[in-house]
Amino acid sequence: MFILEKPYVSDLLKNTLTGLGKPVLENEVASEAFKNSGASLCSENEFVEAYDKNTAQPVYSNSENAIDWIDNNLNKGDLPQKIRLFKDKGAFRDLVKDMYPDFFYRTVKFKELDIVKAEELPIPCVIKPCVGFFSLGVHMVESVQGWNEAVDAIQNEVEHIKTMYPAKVLELDNFIIEKCIEGEEFAVDAYYDADGNPVIINILGHLFASSDDVSDRCYITSTDIINKHHDDFLALLQEIGKRAELKNFPIHIEVRTDGRGNLGVIEVNPMRFAGWCVTDLGYYAYGINPYKYFMKGLKPDWSKISGCCDGKVFAMVIGEIDSAVDRSKIKSVDYERFKSNFSKPLELRKIDYTEHPVFAFIFAEVAADNMDELKKMLHADFTPYLNF
């Protein structure tokens, strides 16, 4: 079963749903996506009735904007509770507390941020909304002064951020302060099958411009990354799935590893793979259709895939718009110029910059022994691609 929501529905997702024959909820986003396609959508009553007949069946949404609707309609089973367990970072930390007994975290109400004593925090640390999305409201703190600056920034950002996503996706009443997890950062698209076994669909390495960078600007995947980390991440997923009793459940989990087998979970995003349909990168890289794999319970044969993709890196880069830019004054974007930064672009997705602080997502292939194109993007100012 599929629930389509903003901010983005990819062509791969639309084409897959046309062929899968699984129920798709009829709503504004789905109706627009399948306009003039002849695709059959389920009314709310039909969709709920089909779900209630088998609450254990797979449900996928491309966006956590669907959480509110699920809370109000798919409440015969335990799906809303499973989603909430992962959306609330405090609740998730409580779930895995004994796995990381030395890990510091503390939840604090937005209105009480001013009274937190920075001297009592394990600096460096990170502060972020307990229920958040897309690095919004996330701040790295590397000093006592940095804490004060982060609180000031959050207080200035909150009202603007509230207008961008539904409350169930991004709640700004409660924040969580966490000790920084050291090591390389990865994002894993995975699902739990009907028996509760985790299946990894893709592993994405998160590239940063600097130690205090918290943006989602660039992710990469390669068979080298997958072969190196698959088994460790799978073991972690098995433990989380056992504790949360997950079956037929998709997740996008962010992890850091120190390279010595020590893993730290940053957060788990339920009900979906990588947001904005970025999970499609696995289709370009390995021919893995994430939506079909989840619905049909398919498992990648990584040994066969490795032989086809050695020496290649597949990347996703977000065309971010600096927060200082007045987006209402942008008249157009030079997409071709932005695309020309990549020697082998795979897909350019144009985004409505009047609604989001992003003008594009691009998928590209680069040689594993020459990552200069991507390194350049990490430090690039994208404002020159905007026409005012």
Textual characterization of the structure:
The N and C termini lie far apart (43 Å). It is globular, with a radius of gyration of 21 Å. The chain contains 13 helices and 16 strands. With 388 residues, the protein is an alpha+beta fold. A hairpin with a 7-residue loop joins β14 (345-350) and β15.
SSE-based structural type: alpha+beta
Q: Helical stretch count? A: 13
- Rg (CA only): 21 Å
What are the secondary-structure elements, in order, as H or E? EHHHEHHHEEEHEEEEHEEHHHEEHEEHE
CATH topology assignment of the largest domain:
D-amino Acid Aminotransferase, Chain A, domain 1
CATH architecture of the largest domain: 2-Layer Sandwich
Largest sheet: 8 strands, antiparallel
What's the structural domain tally? 3
Shape: globular
Give the strand tally: 16
Mean pLDDT: 90
First and last CA, distance = 43 Å
The proportion of residues forming helix, as a percent range, comes to 25-40%
Give the percentage of residues in beta strands: 25-35%
Low-confidence stretches: none
Superfamily at the CATH H level of the largest domain? ATP-grasp fold, B domain
Describe the strand arrangement of the main beta sheet, using strand numbers.
11-10-7-8-9-12-15-14
CATH top level of the largest domain?
A: Alpha Beta
